[in-house]
Design a protein that fits this description.
The chain is an alpha/beta fold and about 775 residues long. The protein has 20 helices and 30 strands. The strands form 9 sheets. A 6-stranded parallel β-sheet has the order 3-4-5-6-7-10. A 6-stranded mixed β-sheet has the order 13-20-19-16-14-15, with helices on both faces. The longest helix is centred in the middle third of the chain and has 21 residues. It starts with a helix and ends with a strand. One of its GO terms (biological process) is glucan catabolic process.
Length: about 775
Amino acid sequence: MTAQSIDALMSAMSFTEKVGQLNQRLLGWKALTRDGAGRLVVTDELKREIDRWGGLGVLYGLFRADPWSGQHWGNGIRPEERPEAIRLVQEAVLIRSAHGIGALLSEEAPHGHQALGGTILPTNLAMGATFDPEAVRQAQEAVAAELAASGVHIALVSGLDMARDPRWGRCEECFGEDPLMASRMCEAIVTGMQGEDRSRVGRGGVAVVLKHLAAQGEAVGGRNGQSAIIGTHDLHEIHLPPVVAGVKAGALGFMAAYNDIDSVPCCASPWLLQEYLRDELGFDGIVMADGLAVDRLVDMAGSIPASGRAALLAGVDVSLWDQGFASLERYADDEVVVAAVDRSLRRVLELKAMFGLLPEGCNAGADRVPSGSSERIAVGRGSVALPKAEAIAEAIARTRTESRTLAGECLTLLDGAEQWNGIGACLRDDQSDPIIVTGPFADDMACFLGDYTAPLERTQITSVYRQLRERFGERVLLSADGTGLEGADWLNAAAVVAVLGGTSERSYDSAFADNGAAAAVAEHGATCGEGVDLCDVTLPWGQDTLLDRVRELTEAPVVSVVVSGRAHVLTHVLEVSDATLWAGYAGPYGPQAVVEALVGDAGMPGRLPVTLPAYAGAVPIRYNDRQSAEHVYRDAEEPVLLPFGFGEGSLQGVSCEDLKVTASGESLHLHLKLHTDGVTDPGTLNVFVRRVGGTRIPRLAQLVASVYVRDKSRGQWDVDAEVPVAALMDEADRAMRIHLWVGTAIPSDECEVVLERGNADTVYVRQTV
């Protein structure tokens, strides 16, 4: 591909055709339907959309299946039908357009592909509990291979948002409350899906659009899409590090968020989308608006067309479902708009070239079709790559293996480490004493899946109850609400497993907002996810009361398994239970992973990615706030139940010795020696600091290094980590005292390091205590 060939293509296009390339207006599942024989056929709606623009820019969600789209196993596109679906859509685009430009296909992949048969990973909050970017990278690489094998080009992936307020329903889409870990996970997403230096884009990988830019998790009161009231320093220190990491890793796209920052909407912010993202960070890909976000600018811009113009001029390149960008063609005489359309068009065409979607001579990616997984066919002036069903099936099998691995890694033991082995022994005992499974999610699968998921195949549906029943047979009894069993069953029980928490499941009779968010939630419907913000984050549906009733019925050990997508108040759960396991939304293999941990077949290496509040009224509380919430509320003097980074199962039995700190260039080098008396399960070693000095009030704690330890050898082993000096000292600081410790966000066994800047701005360690 040469710049000249793109120039020539652009010069041959009308203004309407150019605007059409920037539109992603059509909902993909409306592009195809079935004829009387059940075969897929192109809809008139798709034909009209192509004819309107003389082509098609981006098509969203061709394979999406969920209650909002109305697509399910009875009417949606099955995995083996994806090649035919791609052929029909791309042929229609190429036949009906004048320039031989294929359509980019984008799909939702916040935690796996949201399609029938598409692999579901644990949600981001659960993956955040792994503190294992390498495992996330491998899983995202597998998801990208699945998407690419299916003919998809763009993956819309959550990763930028920070879980700053548990009342926000989209906390499950965040990797946690810490910017360093979110940054490392975003880097893992990009390198996994696109390859190093974008090496797999068009070669078995996809382009990543990271969402949401920016500070959406800071919205007032945890109310989705509302204003983020935040200062410039905190914006850069908390919410923008994942953006920086994404750009450095080579992300080809970002999605502008719904919220405003200090009254300026993200999708209409020239500072955010141009001055910062492009000029300062050097981003060279596309900016996409969130669904209908452009049209929501109408109160600011005054009209739908003016909304489209404002977003375009601010730096949005591609729309999503809105009418604002579809109205840009009326600005054909506006020189500023014409220039901006050409700017965005070039970015879209350059991305299309990576996937071989342009006419011959314009492509950078015609040679990027993975051998054996697809073939190209000529249509009109262009050509299209067709996937093969066998390659799709192979890719799905690999992704499911990665999902299974992550499900085990995210499990986090909150309490009961000393009792855990004894409880497992009770479960494994061949005695006839019953094992009772209770709680609203005892026999539920959907609670593990999170939002943005397609319906599972019947063979995948299971639950904690069914997994235990499979292992221990008729000993396992079900009492979801604590009733229906004989008193003797409770008195003689070997153990009780209570499956508690919340769910993001949407039913097919649910009501939805125009962007697919939950609009109305039934009494026992979704308790989390987009559109389900809560003012009370105690466990819903009287689950604390249920635990009390169970405790009255039995003296058997009670193990509570908490399945959730936000930081619920678990104070009473920890008080009543003998042991408590946090599972997040661990994905389709969550029930299996939970049971393996219960019976002692697997460890629990996870750590909390968020702070757990002790009281609902104390939120938000974050480990890296500047002021402590302790002893502030007269009715809740200790508002933190468990700190960020807590996990009794992670590296249990491991002690840290001989911490050494040295300065080298722009980094501090940390060297730690770990010691164990026996084989230990893998887990995460987190290093925190508190700064003393400088010109700002320091944060209570700051995660500066995280190392996932996989070595299970006996005795001792060394761990090394690098900490950028910029994370510890502002440029103007000449000296700084750093209190450093290993473990959770609560200080313990602190080491004090004194840093000083030399004459050439070289930072060195003056003293370590």
